[in-house]
TrEMBL record:
InterPro entries: GRDP-like, GRDP_C. Residues 506-662 form the GRPD C-terminal domain. This is GRPD C-terminal domain-containing protein. Residues 1-25 are annotated as: Disordered. Residues 11-22 have a biased composition (Low complexity).
């Protein structure tokens, strides 16, 4: 599994539903690998399917195919016509003749791996199966196959061997892709007609890299399911009933089809007797009609009695709405693993389909309710049976995204009551546990409800999702990190506590403490009738991030964690130039200007990344409806580098609510320092406490499991329209984030006056340090 895998543990309806999942990710690799191995071992074919001989390991080949697509992403050979022509010349004049010569000298396919640009042209050409076959036969007398290189060790060997042969035969032509658009003169001396066909194939598949970029696609359990569906798709293609229209392959089937096509020699042999699939199957980026999509779906359901659509599987464009939720790249690393208190989130897509009829006379009084097994007890998605089921076809009833910690979903059959409160009565309930679904070779399960009504649930493999963090006010601490309290004084034999720091606790998506942020505001002691703390100078008002949880010694009194992992120091305050500069311990210099509105600049001489902070929700965080007042609360961090020149959004900050979402490849401490520095600076500029920095007590949060932040989200196109009005079922940054992140206290704690202990210090001390 890319990134970290999710632990699979046995579950049952009577299992404990404790809300703590703090240790679930420690045995992720072992558990999920076992599930993947079980899926591979249990993969079996029907007698009819076994007659279809696929001569390549499609699961291993698909993983290699996806890895190659990721390596090509961002290359100029995808979109620059001159670069494509340059690569086609190398492919036609050097590579293919060389492969033909070597193939004639051996009975097996030469184990050679060409340069990246040539391999991309070769792949695109192979995906146009008929043109590739005709091209090879006309020029070389036989179809040239690609070698089955499915592991890293053989890949390195094949690349090194190919480099040696290439340099020996063509010393004047560099092996590696070395294209300079300003100094290139591309001359294609081979047949212009064939070159145009190859160019069309490359141009057509330019978006192929992004089409399969969902992070769950490389998972073995997903690929095992895709292989099974691809074989069923080929079986369906043999039926005479589907020969009078083009079939539309779903995304997982297209992945396997393209993988199969990428080995043209084997593909021709395996598909013997099947006819030209290129004419009977909708190609990539080909126009899809509604009739073709509906007839494909209907033919599949009639043949296999299961829905064609499922979680993580969309129809080809334009039928597919694109990446609705998993809008981040597949990740192989998490830079935050060394923060022991920061636990990752794992997310999965879930769909539920219903088929059948309900024969009860009082059907109008009966309805279905869906909940999660654990987490988000406020989630109750109700559907009437008559609207959500059909006797003739499978109907998608629910579509949502759940954290793996939710453990599964429950579907309840209920009947409306007749009382004043109209309480409903539970008739029956069925469970779909993630563990059971992930162990299925199809990633689906069917459960019987009542009478002839059946429910089918499907999931995607869980993948590591962006982190969700928010900071909440906490008690004032001294220079040592101890809370200002009589308990601490007594423990220190009544020695006065020195220094004053405003403290905020960082909570993750499940409400767990993972960091403590402290901002220095005062120095000195407090003695009864004697000294009082005084505000420190501007350049001493540092922000520090400490890793870990509070160490409580009595009730809610305790010490901040000892390990300091990040510091932001205000380097300069220049009211005349209207800017403030912060020096971060990460090596970044962060400048905030307010000459003509707010602007942000980040510099780091030791980094090869270009980082831009853009005001508002940008790129994947952009929302269709917004207002300027709400938009100004958000800052999007966009990073770009040579591999990703267009940049990608790695984090979204709401500095007013102190809420953050960031990708695993973005550093948590860096984002926390930026977030607090922005709030401190804007509070200083506007001379008001915007984000509740003056609150010096812990605000009570909603209990975990009641309404967990991010545990359940509904897509924008969900059929549960009446539930989309509830903001906590949407991504937190959509609509009103205040409601999603609201505390358990009914009143607005930011606007209230509270009585604080004299040891904490007078209110003027904090006002002078924060908003003056």
């Amino acid at each position: 599994m890319s990134g970290r895998n999710v632990g699979l543990t046995a579950t049952s309806p009577s299992s404990s539903t404790d809300n703590s999942d703090s240790g679930s990710h420690h045995n992720c690799d072992r558990s999920c690998n076992a599930a993947a191995a079980a899926a591979l071992a249990s993969f079996s074919l029907t007698e009819e399917a076994s007659k279809l001989c696929i001569s390549i390991d499609l699961v291993a080949a698909a993983r290699r195919h996806l890895s190659f697509l990721r390596s090509v992403a961002g290359s100029p050979i995808l979109h620059q016509p001159s670069a494509i022509l340059y690569s086609i010349r190398r492919y036609e004049e050097i590579w293919m003749p060389m492969m033909a010569d070597l193939s004639s000298e051996s009975s097996s396919v030469p184990m050679l791996l060409p340069p990246l640009d040539v391999e991309w042209v070769w792949l695109c050409h192979c995906l146009d199966s008929e043109h590739y076959r005709e091209y090879c036969v006309s020029k070389f007398g036989a179809v040239l196959d690609r070698p089955a290189i499915l592991d890293k060790e053989n890949e390195e060997y094949a690349a090194d061997r190919c480099r040696d042969i290439w340099n020996d035969r063509h010393p004047s032509e560099p092996f590696d892709f070395d294209f300079d658009e300003d100094n290139s003169s591309v001359v294609i001396t081979s047949d212009a007609c064939s070159s145009r066909g190859i160019f069309a194939s490359v141009a057509k598949h330019s978006e192929l890299c992004s089409f399969f970029s969902d992070p769950f696609v490389p998972e073995i359990v997903y690929l095992v399911s895709a292989r099974r569906r691809y074989i069923n798709f080929l079986l369906l293609m043999k039926k005479s009933a589907v020969r009078n229209f083009r079939m539309v392959p779903a995304a997982d089937i297209r992945l396997m089809w393209h993988t199969h096509q990428s080995f043209p020699g084997r593909y021709v042999t395996d598909m013997e007797g099947m006819g030209d699939l290129g004419r009977r199957v909708v190609g990539f980026k080909d126009q899809v009609t509604t009739e073709e999509a509906e007839r494909t779906t209907r033919a599949w359901e009639v043949e296999f009695d299961e829905p064609y659509e499922r979680a993580g599987v969309a129809m080809d464009p334009p039928s597919s709405p694109g990446r609705l939720f998993f809008n981040w790249d597949a990740l192989n690393s998490d830079v935050n693993r060394h923060y022991k208190g920061l636990q990752p989130r794992f997310l999965m897509e879930v769909t539920v389909f219903l088929k059948g009829k309900w024969e009860e006379k009082e059907c109008h009084k009966t309805f279905l309710r869906m909940r999660t097994v654990r987490s988000h007890k406020e989630l109750k998605l109700d559907k009437s049976i008559s609207e959500s089921s059909s006797a003739e076809k499978w109907r998608k009833t629910w579509h949502l995204y759940c954290e793996f910690s939710a453990r599964g979903i429950v579907i309840e059959v209920r009947k409306h009551g007749n009382g004043f409160l109209r309480n409903s009565k539970l008739i029956k309930k069925i469970y779909f546990y993630w563990n059971d679904l992930l162990r299925s070779t199809t990633l689906t399960l069917i459960r019987e409800l009542e009478f002839e009504l059946r429910a089918l649930s499907s999931v995607t493999p869980p993948v590591q999702a962006p982190y969700l963090l928010k900071t909440v006010p906490d008690c004032v601490t001294d220079d040592s990190g101890a809370m200002m309290s009589d308990v601490i004084l007594k423990m220190k034999r009544y020695r006065p506590q020195e220094g004053r720091w405003l403290s905020r606790t960082v909570l993750d998506h499940a409400g767990r403490e993972c960091f403590v942020i402290r901002t220095r505001v005062g120095r000195g002691f407090w003695r009864r009738g004697a000294d009082n703390p005084v505000a420190v100078k501007w350049d001493e008002r540092i922000i520090e991030v400490r890793e870990g949880q509070w160490s409580y010694v009595a009730s809610s009194v305790g010490y901040a964690p000892e390990k300091v992992v990040g510091v932001a120091t205000p380097a300069r305050e220049d009211s005349n130039d209207r800017k403030i500069v912060w020096s971060l311990s990460t090596g970044d210099v962060f400048t905030i200007c307010w000459e003509d509105g707010l602007s942000f600049q980040l510099q780091n001489e030791s980094s090869d990344h270009s980082v831009v902070l853009q005001e508002g929700r940008k790129l994947q965080y952009q929302v269709s409806e917004n207002n300027p007042e709400e938009e100004e609360q958000y800052i999007t961090i966009v990073r770009s580098n040579p591999e990703n020149p267009d940049g990608k959004a790695t984090a979204l900050l709401n500095w007013k609510l102190q809420a953050i979402e960031f990708l695993p490849d973005e550093d948590a401490v860096f984002v926390l320092l930026l977030n607090m520095a922005i709030l401190r600076t804007i509070s200083q500029i506007r001379r008001e406490d915007i984000g509740g920095l003056l609150v010096r007590r812990r605000v009570r949060e909603i209990s975990p499991g009641i309404r967990d932040w991010g545990s359940v989200s509904l897509p924008a196109n969900s059929s549960n329209d009446h539930h989309l009005l509830l903001p906590h079922f949407k991504p937190w940054y959509c609509n009103n984030a205040n409601e999603v992140l609201a505390s358990a206290e009914a009143n607005d704690w930011r606007g209230q006056n509270h009585r604080y202990s004299p040891a904490v210090g007078k209110d003027e001390l904090y006002r002078s340090s924060i908003i003056s």
